[in-house]
Amino acid sequence: MPTEITFTQNTAGVTDPKGFFAKGVSADIRRKGNDRLDTGIVFSRKPCSAAGVFTKNRVKAAPVLECVRTLDSGAPIHGIVANSGNANACTGEQGKKDAEAMARQAAAACGVSAGSFLVCSTGRIGELLPMDKISGAIAKAGAAAAAGEPDGESFSNCILTSDTRKKTCTASFEVDGKKVTLAGSAKGAGMIQPNMATMLAFVTTDIAADSATLKSLLSEVVKRTFNAITVDGDMSTNDTVLVLANGESGVSLDGACLESFKEALFRICDALADKIVADGERITKVVELLISGADSEQGAENIARAIGNSLLVKTSWFGNDPNWGRLMDALGYADSEFDPDGIDIHYGDVPALVSSTPIPENKPKWKEIVSQKRFTIRIDLHAGDASYRLRATDLTEGYVDFNKSE
Fold first, then answer.
1. Count of CB atoms within 10 A of residue 394's CB?
2. Residue 26: Cβ within 10 Å count
3. Which end of the chain is flanked by fewer CB atoms within 10 Å, N or C?
4. Where are the domains of the chain?
5. Distance in angstroms (rounded) separating the CA atoms of residues 373 and 371
6. Are the CB atoms for 14 and 185 separated by under 8 Å?
7. The one catalytic residue among 198, 205, 237, 240
8. What's the pLDDT tens digit per position in 242-266?
9. Yes or no: is domain 286-403 CATH 3.10.20.340?
10. Which of 189, 37, 62, 35 lies closest to 129, judged by CA?
């Protein structure tokens, strides 16, 4: 049984575990002439084991390729360097050189060996990084992190793009009187559709673990969290989730604490995923879709995504319209086997359909539920035992206005 886990929202983030330091600074990457934070470093003096999960988009940004290469090398990792305002995606050979340079410069700024830093970027696609500005910012952030500055908040803010707020949380548990801490910082608001979203997520922990175990656990958790959200159905070029473990707690990840660690990792990733959905570009509602009774998990997921990405469904949510007919239409064209005459649909706990028979007298209650900022739709297919949860959003005029200028 997992030990009791202490979980806290809106924390300092990645610097909460022992031995992690961070700093975010401004390089004016967006060329706005302001002091908006856009470049940062997370650093551990003690080398870390690390693992990552990345976008499945065939068009991968240079920093994604650089991260994969560095992790595949098996080298000990000392930290992460990240920037916002420019994705360094679709930038050709120069983009790859710039990603390598960012990692190299971060390692030098922190006084550790080359090849020990992972690099991430997020922002506009198709523009070269202003390396003349970024290099100085990396040197500044690296010097502060190497000096032991625990400024997780500035780092969490420096990775934001269209986000309206930072996204952090922390979990901890005890093993034989020793405290193990995990913490996360993330960004993401638009282009949100697995695998994964236009999102970066960083998890640090002071447990000791090998990279293979971290990769296995992270992949499992990401499937149920970051890969189970959608805002607009678009998949990005830069999606990255990284976990770093430096062992500073003195606790090793083994059978005695495996379940506690898995639960803590899930709670970190689940909370960050929820924060990403809730901060979707100009959204007004977060909708939890719970599909049950499917013939397979894939079938349940197909239905959840068909509904969650349907423009007709999303706009009806924005209009406070419990239009279950649009739900039925979307699940009907999803790739899943079921009897169309045996569907149950509930808004919250209020039935809309039972065995595909409407219950129109409940419409006032449906409308009340759909008018809330958060609500749940439950669909039971009565075709098997599989289920799937997807968190989605409405689609608003504000989303269109915001993105038409991009």
1. 23
2. 19
3. N
4. 6-278, 286-403
5. 7
6. yes
7. 198
8. 999 999 999 999 998 999 999 999 9
9. yes
10. 62
Report angle CA 343, 344, 350 to the nearest 5 degrees: 160
Q: What is the DSSP letter of 321?
A: -
The two three-digit tokens of residue 256, written as one number: 């005695």
| Contacts (Cβ under 8 Å, ≥6 apart) of 272 | 167, 169, 184, 185, 186, 201, 225, 226
Handedness of CA 101, 103, 109, 115 (dihedral sign): negative
- Over the stretch 92-133, which tens digit does the pLDDT of each residue have? 999 999 999 999 999 999 999 999 999 999 998 999 999 999
DSSP 49-75: EEEEEE---SS--HHHHHHHHHHHHT-
Map residue 285 onto helix, strand or coil: coil
Lowest mean pLDDT among 118-127, 170-179, 183-192: 183-192
For every residue of 88-150, DSSP letters joined together read: --S-HHHHHHHHHHHHHHHHHHHT--TT-EEEEEEEESS----HHHHHHHHHHHHHHHHTT-B
List, for residues 296-332, the tens digit of each pLDDT value.
999 999 999 999 999 999 999 999 999 999 999 999 9
Residue 96: name the closest of 57, 129, 137 by CA: 129
Class of domain 6-278: alpha beta
**Per-residue pLDDT, 402:** 75
Q: Is 198 a catalytic residue?
A: yes
Buried (b) or exposed (e) across 304-329, using 16+ Cβ within 10 A? bbbbbbbeebbbbbbebebbbebbbe
Asked if 92 and 82 touch (Cβ cutoff 8 Å), the reply is no
